[in-house]
Design goal:
alpha+beta, five-stranded mixed beta sheet, two-stranded antiparallel sheet, about 10% strand, elongated
Length: about 500
């Protein structure tokens, strides 16, 4: 009974909130009339922010109380305006000295053109009707049934008691239906999810471009300060050897020996540089063997465990390899570690790498550029870095790249569960029965005072119960048809949103 009591309390609270939304509906309608009818456009954004706050609260309650979490469905906000070379800010054909008005105009356009704004308004308009009637109907039935207990009637009282008990047991199902209805109107669409992904990819692309530029500068600096300087020195030494070949063969021979040593050093530096760009073992043998080779060169005692059934793509392997290399370097340089453990595994499409060391701990991404560089490198592939490094150690870094491992893509939506098929069949099969004959037709006969009662159940009840039962029948029929139509649509939409994951946007991804 605790379950039904909790469901009743939540349904009653949500029903009252839905009824209170009627005042917000009046405010939104008044603001809409003033905005578009009288040109008071400055009222639109505050009203929209108020509307979004209410809808955000509804999403939160839907997840906490009904168990159906709803993510925000809004398009990404516009970026802040940037000044032109002359210091002015442009919006369409207008120039402004400050970014205030361009930013205001951009946000206004963003709210006006976002379909989620109008879906929120539709939800608010219907919520007092759907939420109030749906969630307070069981409570009304219980109150009516308890009230009839004090006025005994041989027919009405037992029916009222049955109605009260039915209201109690129907509350969890009505609450679940209300959550599904909220999800239908407030959940993200495939377009909003895709827009968010594109917005995030734009940010990742900028970070990737910056990282690539920094990497190119590092390579140029290493070449200029290392191998290039040695090759220039070798050329000058060979020039001196040419002059000394006839005059002083012994000195020429000594210079040739130095040139050979310098060429060997330059070759080693070039190999290190190439290994820093993309190790050959990584391209030939894969991530596992590359990390094992890295462990052999590390001053730490590194234990490597690899459990991968398939190889990630080359850019992903490179990002994971250099992230592991940076973590091992930090363990030696900053943590004073002696041992490290590297675990590489695949969980579905997710590549997970865990690096643990026995160092002094205290690692903080906000205090070092190395960990920030790892985060930027992983962000290009939707990867995240989770760090646990208490003072005194140990330090554990977990790298998750959620769409790194390949899987066959069929593009075909998975079949609905059997219970959903049963609900859809039930809705199409018997939805007409309470809606038309027991609901609308009975209402028609009641309004026009027809004496024929036939098989219309509501007309056989006492007068106070006839209209509530007819309204309930109409609502039940609409609910059955709504489930029959909505369940397949919701299932298809979830599959469409799943298709907008980074696996389907890899062609537009960035490589670091």
């Amino acid at each position: 009974m605790k379950r039904y009591a909790v469901a009743a309390g939540r349904a009653f609270t949500l029903g009252l909130l839905a009824l209170l939304d009627a005042f917000l509906v009046v405010l939104v309608l008044l603001s809409t009339i003033l905005t578009f009818g009288m040109g008071m456009i400055f009222l639109f954004m505050p009203t929209t922010r108020l509307l979004r706050s209410r809808v955000t609260f509804a999403r939160r309650l839907n997840g906490v109380w009904i168990g159906s979490r709803i993510e925000p469905s809004y398009l990404p906000p516009p970026p802040p305006p940037k000044p032109q070379p002359d210091g002015w800010y442009r919006h369409e054909r207008q120039l402004y000295k400050t970014p205030r008005w361009p930013a205001w105009n951009n946000r206004l356009k963003w709210m006006l053109s976002d379909p989620a704004t109008w879906r929120d308004a539709l939800w608010l308009l219907l919520n007092p009707i759907i939420g109030g009637v749906l969630l307070l109907l069981p409570f009304s039935a219980v109150v009516y049934g308890l009230a009839r207990m004090w006025f005994w009637h041989p027919v009405v009282t037992p029916l009222a008691a049955v109605l009260a008990v039915g209201g109690v047991f129907a509350t969890p199902w009505l609450l679940r239906f209300y959550g599904w209805w909220n999800h239908l109107l407030l959940a993200p669409t495939a377009r909003s999810v895709l827009a968010g992904r594109v917005h995030k990819l734009d940010q990742v692309r900028l970070d990737a471009v910056d990282s690539q530029a920094a990497e190119l500068r590092r390579i140029e600096r290493d070449l200029h300060d290392g191998a290039q300087a040695r090759l220039v020195a070798i050329g000058m030494t060979l020039g001196a050897v040419e002059e000394l070949m006839d005059k002083d063969p012994a000195a020429a021979k000594a210079l040739l020996a130095k040139s050979r040593e310098a060429s060997s050093t330059a070759l080693t530096e070039l190999r290190d540089l190439v290994r820093g760009i993309h190790p050959p073992v990584l391209a030939e043998r894969g991530l596992g063997d590359a990390v094992r080779a890295l462990a052999l060169d590390s001053p730490l005692k590194v234990a490597v465990t690899v459990d991968l059934k398939s190889r990630p793509d080359s850019p992903v392997e490179s990002a994971a390899y250099f992230s592991i290399s940076e973590l091992l370097t930090n363990a030696v340089r900053h943590g004073g570690a002696d041992r490290a453990w590297v675990d590489i595994s695949g969980q579905g499409r997710t590549l997970r790498v865990t690096v643990t060391d026995d160092g002094s701990g205290g690692a903080d991404p906000s205090r070092g550029s190395g960990l920030n560089g790892i985060e930027r490198r992983l962000a290009a592939f939707d990867g995240v870095l989770a760090l646990s490094s208490p003072p005194g150690g140990p330090t554990t870094a977990t790298l998750d790249l959620p769409y790194a491992l390949p899987t066959p893509q069929t593009g075909k939506a998975p079949s609905m569960p059997k219970w959903k098929h049963a609900v859809v069949a039930l809705g199409w099969g018997i939805g007409w029965l309470p809606l038309f004959p027991q609901g609308l037709v009975a209402m028609f006969l009641k309004i026009f005072g027809a004496s024929e009662r036939s098989w219309f159940v509501a007309l056989y009840l006492p007068e106070p119960l006839q209209w509530p039962l007819m309204v309930f029948n109409v609502f039940l029929g609409l609910t059955l048809y709504g489930l029959a139509v909505g369940l397949p649509l919701t299932h298809a939409r979830k599959h469409a949103i799943a298709q907008t994951t980074p696996a389907h946007l890899e062609a537009g991804g960035c490589v670091v």
